[in-house]
Design brief:
alpha+beta; 6 helices; QueA-like; six-stranded antiparallel β-barrel; single chain; Thrombin, subunit H; nine-stranded mixed β-sheet
Length: 388
């Protein structure tokens, strides 16, 4: 197995630059793993593939205003910082973040300070500085990764000091992926309609962008369960596999939460012989990370229709404030997820390997070739795939 095995030619004009409107009007490619056949539908048709008793599990994480554009103190050079995750192990108060910085060569020296103004990217020079960031150290094994200590600057309108979160919101913007270069619409379109209030992620779980409140209600009315987990999307969203041998790629850790209520819903679904359907690769990784091979099964091994359940011991267990670096590639086992809703992914990415593990590499490549021929829209704002 080579990384090249997960490459494919993606025409630039098929990279979606704006979301579908309404959200569920995008196209849906349905891939049947039994025989590799595909169907071409609309996302709103997904109800036809969900059966009463099934359980849909989505990632409810919300994207932070994680893109900060400021100027280097002393030289005035423009610097871009992308917040990835708080590092409480470095600063228990939450002021130190793991970040990607650009240009990295200008931001190498510990003690270098960046100033960020209210309004961020489009702020006039007269705008007040609301946030500062001091380079603390490099992030080992990460190109462009830095530890940055942030501090709020200035005061609120009532004269009281700003909090750090208020300063980040005053200066920051929701970060779109770098391949989306033409979108100037509502940044809320890069959030799922079911996202939680707290903001923890550096990127959206984009398979969920296709759902509307009305579609979710219709899913529930059909007798299909709806549950949410959280995985805080971090640095690996922005990293492609550069090694020729994909097994040499190192996944960074991301925080995730699978509640006791979700575990109970999965147990009930499996015991009744129905399917767990994950919305997006982040939901897949959350659920499969929650699998404990040493746990005693809570329900007898059963076969969700059309799929055989793995025999032996093991069970999905609750995980709160846990971390995962689970890397799923061909040869990996799936213990919890029976079907998956996903988008079309970047070539040579770990996400291509994950979907190729869930189906087969040949099935995925054939489905992608069909999508390109049919002029589907690709990547974060693009169309969807259902793998059953």
């Amino acid at each position: 197995m080579r990384t090249d095995d997960f490459d494919y030619p993606l025409p630039d004009e098929l990279i979606a630059q704006a979301p579908a409107e309404p959200r569920d009007s995008c196209r849906l490619l349905v891939l049947h793993r039994e025989d590799g056949s595909v169907e071409h539908r609309r996302f709103s048709d997904i109800l036809e593939y969900l059966e009463p008793g099934d359980l849909v599990v989505a990632n409810q994480t919300r994207v932070m205003p994680a893109r900060l554009v400021g100027r280097k103190r002393g030289t005035g050079g423009v610097c871009e910082t992308l917040l990835l995750k708080r590092r409480e192990d470095v600063d228990a108060l939450g002021g130190v973040w793991e970040c990607l910085v650009n240009p990295g060569k200008r931001l190498r020296q510990p003690g270098t300070v960046i100033e960020y103004r209210a309004g961020g990217l489009h702020a006039p020079e007269s705008a007040p500085v609301v946030l500062t960031g001091e380079i603390v150290d490099f992030v080992e094994g990460s190109k462009g990764g830095r530890l940055v200590r942030f501090s709020p600057a200035g005061e609120r309108a009532d004269g009281t000091p700003r909090t750090l979160d208020e300063a980040i919101h005053a200066a920051g913007h929701v970060p779109l992926p770098p391949y989306i270069t033409q979108y100037e619409g509502d940044p809320e379109k890069y959030q799922t309609v079911y996202a939680m209030t707290e903001e923890h992620s550096a990127a959206a779980p984009t398979a969920g962008l296709h759902f509307t409140p009305e579609l979710i209600e219709r899913i529930r009315e059909r007798g299909v369960g709806w549950a949410t987990v959280e995985l805080e999307v971090g640095i690996d969203t922005f990293r492609l596999v550069t090694e020729d041998d994909p097994t040499q790629h190192v996944m960074h850790t991301e925080r995730y939460h699978v509640s006791r209520e979700v575990v109970d819903a999965i147990h009930a679904t499996k015991a009744a012989g129905h399917r767990v359907i994950a919305v997006g690769t982040t939901s897949v990784r959350s659920l499969e990370s929650a699998w404990d091979p040493d746990a005693a099964p809570s329900v007898p091994p059963v076969a969700a229709r059309r799929f055989e359940a793995a025999a032996g011991t093991g069970d999905v267990v609750a995980r709160e404030n846990a971390t995962t670096n689970l890397y799923l590639m061909p040869g990996s086992d799936f213990h919890v997820v029976d079907a998956m809703i996903t988008n079309f992914h970047v070539p040579r990415s770990t996400l291509m390997m994950l979907v190729s593990a869930f189906a087969t590499r040949d099935q995925i490549m054939a489905a992608y070739a069909a999508a390109i021929e049919e002029r589907y829209r690709f990547l974060s704002f693009g169309d969807a795939m259902l793998i059953v």
